[in-house]
Each structure stands twice: as structure tokens, then as C-alpha cells.
Amino acid sequence: MMQNVMTRLIIVAVALGAASAAWAHAFLDHANPAVGSSVPTAPAVVTLWFTQDLEPAFSDVTVTNQAGQRVDLGNARIPSDSPAELQIGLKPLPPGTYLVRWHVVSVDTHPTEGTYTFEVGGG
Fold first, then answer.
1. Could you state, in chain order, the average pLDDT of each consecutive group of 10 residues for the chain (123 residues)?
2. Count of alpha carbons within 13 angstroms of residue 100, beta-carbon side
3. Is the CATH number of domain 2-120 2.170.270.10?
């Protein structure tokens, strides 16, 4: 009986530890242009907001067109006054669908990555 109780306590402790570790990751909170959105005119910048502050040396974002060509300016940055925000400038974009691919590391060293699309001039 006592061993059964101890086993259950260990399982609960491991589950709680895993849950708290998951909260330490920087997940995408929202973006501009928004995930899956259609915008009438091309944005000058893609901005991503995360749930944790980011480590600038290990965080990046790219934007590509339907042919897989980069359409960003290669100037990804994390503003010093907004450490959970990642921005990248864009070249002038014609109508089409664009893929945003991000890879970030939170300041507590947990990496996450993801992609989403947005459409320009999908009127």
C-alpha cells in the first residue's frame, strides 16, 4: 500500500515537472500579419510576439514566397525594449502567399520553431 502511494506521488511529481518545463518554452503568441491572414497590401515588416523573452543570438525568422525564394531583408531583430518580439523587414511583395519560418530560443535556453502563411492581395 505504501509503495503504491509512493509510486503515485513520483508519477505526479514527474508530470508536474514536465508541465513546468513546457511553460518555459517561447511559443508564438500572435503575429502581424496574423497567422493565416489575407492582407490587402504588402506589409513592410513581419512582427512575431512570443510568450517568453528571446535570446537574440539564437533566434531568427525568414519569409519566403511560393517558389521558396527569400523575400525578407535578412535583418531579423529583437527590439531592446520588447525582448519577446521578433521582427524582420520585407522587400516589396507582389500578391501571393508567403511562408514565415521562425526558430527561437528563450532566455532560459529552450528552443522552439514553427511556420505559418499569410496572403497578400487575396481580395
1. 52 44 76 97 98 95 98 97 98 98 93 97 70
2. 27
3. no
Q: With the C-alpha atoms ordered 90, 91, 92, 94, is the resulting torsion angle positive or negative?
A: negative
The three-class DSSP label of residue 9 is helix
Q: Are 87 and 112 in contact (CB under 8 A)?
A: no
CA geometry: angle 43, 89, 80, nearest 5 deg: 115
Kindly give, in sequence order, each residue whose CB lies less than 8 Å from that of residue 11, ignoring residues fewer than 6 positions away: none
Q: What is the pLDDT of residue 4?
A: 57
Could you tell me the pTM of the whole model?
Answer: 0.80
Domain boundaries, the chain: 2-120
Signed CA dihedral, 14, 16, 18, 20: sign only: negative
pLDDT value at position 1?
A: 57
- 85-89 vs 45-50, strand pairing mode: antiparallel
**Which pLDDT belongs to residue 114?**
97
**Do the strands 38-39 and 111-120 form a parallel or antiparallel pair, or are they unpaired?**
parallel
